[in-house]
């Protein structure tokens, strides 16, 4: 048989295994894994993306790696995903690094930070700026191997029941806003609440919280926030491009032959591209529906509020960096890369968008 026939045919498992460099016994071994997520069942883009990922891996591996996906709360609580993968009870997880600030403050850079990079810039940093290596370094003590697996793109600033015209209007608000954005707002008197996606609408509707941020128009419309709040603010200063993560238990990862590891990493990269693209495609349509069908008031935060939040955000980042060496190390990489790519984005996409007819 010519080599080409073997590659195309793949009928004889041991031959294909030999070509891929894996022992025959490993090439025929079947893996049955479980993945837990932080998302409600059928939640668009996130949960559906995790399920598509599992299907792709199954198809590409010829059924050698099958991953059963469980929504948040089905096997472990939505915010118990990291621990479940870290301890090895589950081989995979699908979640957001923003939730794990309590494990290590540096995790937050791998979701999004206030006034940080856009989704596209984040991917540039992760894949080509050393970001992904740092992400794995931060997760290594927890026995987790990580991949970016989606990105929301720039988010909205949140839903409010009253207008935010000055910094004083934040005082006393009970708001769901996780991560460093929440830390910044807590400095101006916001009572910050951390709740999983599945509990947000009821909390807002029942007045347990006064304001909420989740993602962008597409997700927010699906959740139905427009039925419980009237004002929808932009920009999402606190999350300009939130990455979503695929977590793999290290032992489970190391048990995979090289070709299955490659399949997992390729499927994760595809998920990352498709997720960002799906949000971009659907956010515009949803924004139009929110305004024309549901009379939502879309308002921009006043410039002085954004300026004040920017200053507070920079101070917050510096304070944590002074206390946490790993946070400081990642911050330095992030800041250096952001500075360089911003200079390009400024005369690239930004100048194009602001040009007449752009
Ligand atoms: Ca958010």
What Rg is obtained from the alpha carbons, in whole angstroms?
22 Å
Small molecules bound: calcium ion
Overall 3D geometry? globular
In spatial order, strands of the major sheet run 7-6-8-5-9-11
Largest sheet: 6 strands, mixed
Q: Spell the H/E element sequence.
A: HHHEHEHEHHEEEHEHEHEEHHEHH
Structural class: alpha/beta
| Low-confidence runs of at least 5 consecutive residues | 1-18
Number of helices: 14
Q: How far is the first residue's CA from the last residue's CA? A: 56 Å
Classify the helix fraction into a percent range: 40-55%
β-sheet strand percentage: 5-15%
User: Roughly what is the average pLDDT, rounded to an integer?
Assistant: 93
Please provide a written account of the structure.
- The chain is of the alpha/beta class and 358 residues long.
- Helix content is 49%, strand content 14%.
- A six-stranded mixed sheet has the order 7-6-8-5-9-11, covered by helices on one side. It has a five-stranded mixed sheet with strand order 2-1-3-10-4, sandwiched between helices.
- Strand 6, helix 8 and strand 7 (191-193) form a beta-alpha-beta unit.
- Helix 4 (46-60) packs antiparallel against helix 12 and helix 10 crosses helix 12 (258-292).
- The termini are far apart.
- Residues 155, 213-215, 239 line the site of calcium ion (CA).
